[in-house]
Amino acid sequence: MDILKIFGFGEGGWGLALLAGAGMTLLVSACGLLIGAVIGALVAWSRLSGNRLAGAAGEAYAALFRGLPELLVVYFVYFGSSTLLTTGAKLVGYDGFIGVPSFVAGALAVGVISGSYQAEVFRAAYLAIVKGELEAAVSVGMDRWLMFQRIIAPQVLRFALPGLGNLWQVALKDSSLISVTGLAELMRVSQVGAASTHQPFAFYVGGLVLYLAMTLVTTRLFDIAEARATRGMRRIAG
Questions:
Q1: Chain centroid offset of residue 132 CA
Q2: Is 218 in a helix, a strand, or coil?
Q3: Which CATH architecture has domain 3-237?
Q4: Alpha carbon 90 to chain centroid distance?
Q5: Angle, nearest 10°, between helix axes 15-48 and 200-229?
Q6: Distance between CA atoms of 228 and 65, rounded to whole angstroms?
Q7: In degrees, to the nearest 5, what angle opens at C-alpha 157 toward C-alphas 154 and 160?
Q8: Considering only CA atoms, which of 34, 13, 19, 8 is closest in space to residue 185?
Q9: Residue 232's pLDDT band (boundaries 50, 70, 90)?
Q10: How far apart are CA 147 and CA 145, in angstroms?
Q11: pLDDT, tens digit (0-9, with 9 covering 90-100), for 127-158
């Protein structure tokens, strides 16, 4: 089969399907990164809170999901969440099966994995804040919420951006594992196309090119965001 026809946008071409799969990959990765940011922030807070129980729970979470294979986490979230929902529904009298959509399960799986790493990024970013700034805020009577808005959150985000950029690339790659749930992301579309046309090399090279393009573009966007976030720091240093 002609390669140009395979990747074309006309009848029998897989161009649109591959682009749609790439879009789904970006969407599920972005949602996973956001879910991971929420989880990571909570875990980082638990480890910084000084509470032994909360700190131990945060450390256990991070150790567990860093140590497990990512594919196992995907299966655990995909099948486990459906099992839990079905079991809970039976307790209130519903006798049917409740399945979790592949997109939701995939984003949760990526988020659970990413959150275990983001926790350390946020914790390190918080510890990088000059303590004198926090002490000065307390000395002038600034309440905790206002201090969080004006001092902690902006600086944590600034210091965390390089690490978050690296974790975005990890989330982008981990999203390929979600193909086992049947979600039509880039890897799944490549697999289906390869099986349908008996041209595996062409489709996997096409998938490689799209993954590389997404990586290069999004890395550049993170670089721009990091440059803007640290612009004031460079001026002070200069």
A1: 33
A2: helix
A3: Orthogonal Bundle (1.10)
A4: 32
A5: 40
A6: 32
A7: 150
A8: 19
A9: low
A10: 5
A11: 998 888 888 888 888 888 888 888 888 899 99
